[in-house]
Structure formats: structure tokens, C-alpha cells
């Protein structure tokens, strides 16, 4: 059964983190953000919702970079039970999809808890000052990609990059639950 994200408390500052990525680097929100903002996508390797959304997420990440908004993926799943989400598999996925953004590993799950993330894919869109302005879905795709779906994340972040304002319409994310450690 899919999990839906809760309504966002807009205006909150991005929680600090220092996480390793599949490219061998370590990142913080400050090192990740672009001139006009940052999108943090809680995602994983095995989720059918993430797999379906991946082409549109990659397309939108590339387009957002052009307007000064960077994207980063974070995998917080328990890889001891969900072995497809282990760090070595994250590296393989990064290469397979040629991800145009860093893919970070939240092994302790502290960052997912700090953000209040509940499902994959779930997007947190921050303005240039790292204040939360959007929380929700990439688009209306579910377990199948919808190539003509309205680009909810992209449109929201384009408005945020232009004027710092969150769109009134925010669409909750829906996907697999984050796989928490006992």
C-alpha cells in the first residue's frame, strides 16, 4: 500500500547534514544548493514509484540546474533488509542512469527523520536561503511514468527561483514508505 507525504510546514530551514555520495564526495546542504535553491529528493533503488519517476526526475534536474536550482537524492532505506538499496547498488544505479545529481547515503536514517520524510520519491524544495517552499511529488506518475504529466516539482521550483514564493498548489508525494530500521 502506498504512503502519502504529510502537508508541509513551509518556511522551515533545511536541516543540516553531512552525507557521503556515490561520487566519493561528501555533501552538505550549503555545498549542494544552487544560486536559486535546492531540491532534496528522498529516493531509493528498489521502489517502483522511483523507477517510474526516474526519467522525469532526471529531465527536471537538468532543467532546474539551468535556472540555478540543484538537485540531490538521498537514500535512507534500511539496506540490511532491502539489499537493493545498499551503497554499492546506489553506485551502480548512479552509473546506470547517469544521474546528473549527487546521490547521498543516509545510513543512520537521521536525515530522513530530521526532514520528516516518509516515502520515496518525496521532494523537498528549498529557496536560495534554504527555506522550505515546496514539499511533494515530482509529477502525477505513479508506478508507470506519465510522459505528459504536469511537471509539479519543476513548475514549483521555477516559481521559487524567480520570486522566492511557494506555489499555492502543492501535491503530496505518494510512493513506497521509507524502510526504517528496527
UniProtKB/TrEMBL annotation:
Superkingdom, taxonomy of origin: Bacteria
Domain Thioredoxin per the UniProt entry, residue ranges: 8-165
Coiled-coil residues: none
Short name of any one Pfam family annotated for the protein: AhpC-TSA
One function term, GO molecular function aspect: oxidoreductase activity
InterPro entries named in the record: AhpC/TSA, PRX-like1, Thioredoxin-like_sf, Thioredoxin_domain
Record's protein name: Thioredoxin family protein
